[in-house]
Each structure stands twice: as structure tokens, then as C-alpha cells.
């Protein structure tokens, strides 16, 4: 079977019973998620993985913070699957707060919120069943904009255990925050415990990293051509503002800051090698969208036009999936509009 992009289904709202989801695609993650909730320590031994769930298990094995906390709080299955919605609205509130604090401009505030709710940074939590992305995106915003070193430290301590994308996006956020010597660098050392545990596991014989690289590398060139399409669908009309932010950060930074920015771009390439859900992964650029809007100095109607375009332009989640013949192919879960279809 050759490469194809297939519209699998419209992402249903999480308010629906999770039993009603099509288990051939997004619902396939539900059994693994709930197994991890019920037994965060030994769930991989107790859960009978099929072929389609092995890649998911590989991704979830180190994302243990939220399952452990939810298990200790004795959340029910349904309550656990509602957590991404809770995280999405926390993220929405934080985006709005930073947008208003940076400019105190109603149009820029509305544009930031409008571009956010029409991006994959919002839809991953609302549509992606069991995707805890909003919580690590909250951490990226804290690292980028929070005036509190303790908030930055907390983000660096906990967010890598939610999703390793946080760790890979950290150089970009550090560059965005700036390198003017304000004494906030020490909180970034909060990622060291996570890195130490992963290194110790590797030295003890853990094959997770090598298995992941082998699995992704074997199929990478079959879906790599679709990665730019996935990136486009993550932000669409907000891309000019993200590029503007990257350029502004590059020109304002010292040599160290530019090295951070360059290494952050390299880490983006690592993310898109290790993660097949490219539309979802590009959400790590959320802080740059917020910064780009706040620094936009052209006519306000341009921002309004970009928001309108994002509401009009169709969008889709582009990812890789396994075809009925067992081949890894790109796929797309399609929607006619951006976030309210």
C-alpha cells in the first residue's frame, strides 16, 4: 500500500463515553491509559499489548507524573479522561494572562486567544483523548514568561515527567526568556533529576531509547514528506507571527542566546523524528506565538485577519498510523473547521 492521507473520523468531544470511541484509532490509547492509571508501576507487565499499542506504551512509560497523582487521588476512569479538558482551560487562562500582561492591548489579547483556540495547542487537549499535552505546555509558558524562579523550577522538576517534549523544547524557551543575566538560570537545573533517572536507566540496560529510535527510523522516510503538512496544520495563519518571534529573539540575543535558539531548532527536528503526531508536536511553539503577537507593531487589522483566517481555514491532525496491511502510513483525522466542528 502506498502513502496516503485518510480522513478517519471527526474528533468527538471528550464528553462522550469513552467506550463509544473508535478503538482502531484514537480510542486505541484508552486501554493503555487506564491500565497505567490503575497500576502506574507494573502496568506494562499486566497489560496485554497488541501491535498497535506497543508504540503507545513506549511513549507512555516515562510519562508517569499525572497517572501516579491521579492514582493516588483515586480518580475514576472517566475523571481521568477529563483531565486534558481541565488542563486545556488552565492553559487558556495562562495564555490570556500573559497576552494581557505583555501588551494591555485588547486587540492583541483577543488575537492571542483566538489564534490559540484555533491551534493544535488547544485542540490536542480537547480532541485528543487522554492527551495530557496542556499540562506540559503550561510548563513551557512558565519557563518562557513567569517572573517567579520558583514557578520555573517547579515546571522544570515536574513537566519532563508529563511529556519529554518539554525537555526538548526547553532550549527554545530559555532563549525566548533571554540571557541578560537576571539570575533565573538556576531553576533550569530542575530537569537534572529526570535526566539522571533516564541516564541511570540507560546504563542499567533499559532499551527504551534504542527501541524507539529503531521503530521510528524504520518508517521515518515513509511519512517524513508529510511532516511540513502536519506543522502547517498546527498553526496555519499564526505561522508569520511565530517566524517573527524567532527572528526577533535571534536579533536580540547574545551569542549564548543564539546558540540556545539554534539548539532548540535542532531539538525540534529530534521531536519530529521521535513523534509521528506532527500537528500535535508543533504546539511546543506556543510561547513564540504569544510573544509574536505581543511584539507585532503593524496595523491591528492584520491580527484580526490572521484570526479570521484560522477560523476559516480547514485543519486536520496529521500523524502516522498503521494500515490494515501493517505498513506505517501517514493519516489525518479531519475536521471541516478548526475547533468547533
Describe this structure in words.
A two-stranded antiparallel ribbon has the order 1-2. By secondary structure, the protein is mostly helical. The chain is built from 18 helices and two strands. It has helices at residues 29-38, 43-46, 51-60, 65-72, 77-103, 106-117, 120-127, 133-145, 149-158, 165-177, 192-203, 208-223, 227-235, 239-252, 255-274, 278-281, 286-294, 300-312; strands at 315-322, 328-335. 41% of the residues are buried. The chain has one domain (83-335). Residues 1-25 and 322-341 have low confidence and may be disordered.
> Level of helix content?
55-70%
Identify the overall geometry: globular
From the alpha carbons, calculate the radius of gyration and give it in angstroms.
20 Å
Looking at how many chains there are and whether they match, the oligomeric state comes to single chain
Q: What is the averaged pLDDT score?
A: 79
The CA-CA distance between the termini, in Å, is 31 Å
Overall number of strands: 2
Main sheet: strand order: 1-2
Strand composition percent: under 5%
Number of helices: 18
Derived from helix and strand composition plus strand pairing, the structural class reads: mainly alpha
Helix and strand arrangement:
Blueprint: H1 29-38, H2 43-46, H3 51-60, H4 65-72, H5 77-103, H6 106-117, H7 120-127, H8 133-145, H9 149-158, H10 165-177, H11 192-203, H12 208-223, H13 227-235, H14 239-252, H15 255-274, H16 278-281, H17 286-294, H18 300-312, E1 315-322, E2 328-335
Antiparallel strand pairs: 1-2
Helix pairs in contact: 1-3, 1-4, 5-6, 5-7, 5-8, 5-17, 6-17, 6-18, 8-9, 8-10, 10-15, 14-17
Amino acid at each position: 500500500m502506498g502513502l496516503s492521507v485518510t480522513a478517519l473520523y471527526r474528533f468527538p468531544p471528550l464528553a462522550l463515553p469513552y467506550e463509544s470511541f473508535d478503538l482502531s484509532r484514537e480510542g486505541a490509547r484508552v486501554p493503555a491509559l487506564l491500565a497505567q492509571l490503575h497500576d502506574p508501576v507494573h502496568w506494562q507487565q499486566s497489560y496485554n499489548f497488541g501491535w498497535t499499542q506497543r508504540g503507545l506504551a513506549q511513549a507512555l512509560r516515562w510519562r508517569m507524573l499525572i497517572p501516579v497523582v491521579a492514582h493516588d487521588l483515586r480518580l475514576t476512569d472517566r475523571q481521568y479522561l477529563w483531565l486534558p479538558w481541565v488542563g486545556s482551560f488552565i492553559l487558556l487562562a495562562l495564555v490570556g494572562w500573559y497576552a494581557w500582561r505583555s501588551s494591555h492591548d485588547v486587540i492583541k489579547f483577543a488575537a492571542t486567544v483566538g489564534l490559540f483556540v484555533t491551534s493544535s495547542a488547544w485542540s490536542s487537549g480537547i480532541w485528543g483523548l487522554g492527551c495530557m499535552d496542556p499540562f506540559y505546555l503550561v510548563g513551557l509558558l512558565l519557563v518562557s514568561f513567569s517572573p517567579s524562579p520558583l514557578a520555573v523550577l517547579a515546571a522544570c522538576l515536574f513537566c519532563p515527567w508529563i511529556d519529554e517534549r518539554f525537555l526538548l523544547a526547553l532550549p527554545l524557551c530559555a532563549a525566548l526568556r533571554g540571557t541578560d543575566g537576571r539570575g533565573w538560570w538556576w531553576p533550569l537545573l530542575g530537569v537534572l533529576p529526570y535526566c539522571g533517572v533516564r541516564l541511570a536507566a540507560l546504563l542499567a540496560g533499559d532499551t527504551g531509547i534504542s527501541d524507539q529510535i529503531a521503530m521510528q527510523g524504520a518508517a521515518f522516510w515513509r511519512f517524513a514528506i508529510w511532516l511540513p503538512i502536519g506543522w502547517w496544520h498546527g498553526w496555519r495563519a499564526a505561522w508569520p507571527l511565530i517566524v517573527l518571534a524567532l527572528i526577533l529573539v535571534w536579533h536580540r540575543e547574545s551569542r549564548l542566546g543564539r546558540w540556545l535558539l539554534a539548539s532548540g531548532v535542532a531539538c525540534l527536528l529530534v521531536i519530529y523524528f521521535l513523534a509521528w503526531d506532527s500537528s500535535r508536536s508543533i504546539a511546543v511553539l506556543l510561547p513564540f506565538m504569544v510573544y509574536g503577537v505581543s511584539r507585532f507593531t503593524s496595523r491591528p487589522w492584520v491580527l484580526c485577519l490572521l484570526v479570521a483566517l484560522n477560523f476559516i481555514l480547514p485543519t486536520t491532525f496529521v500523524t502516522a498510523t498503521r494500515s490494515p496491511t501493517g505498513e506505517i502510513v501517514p493519516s489525518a483525522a479531519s475536521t471541516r473547521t478548526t475547533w468547533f466542528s
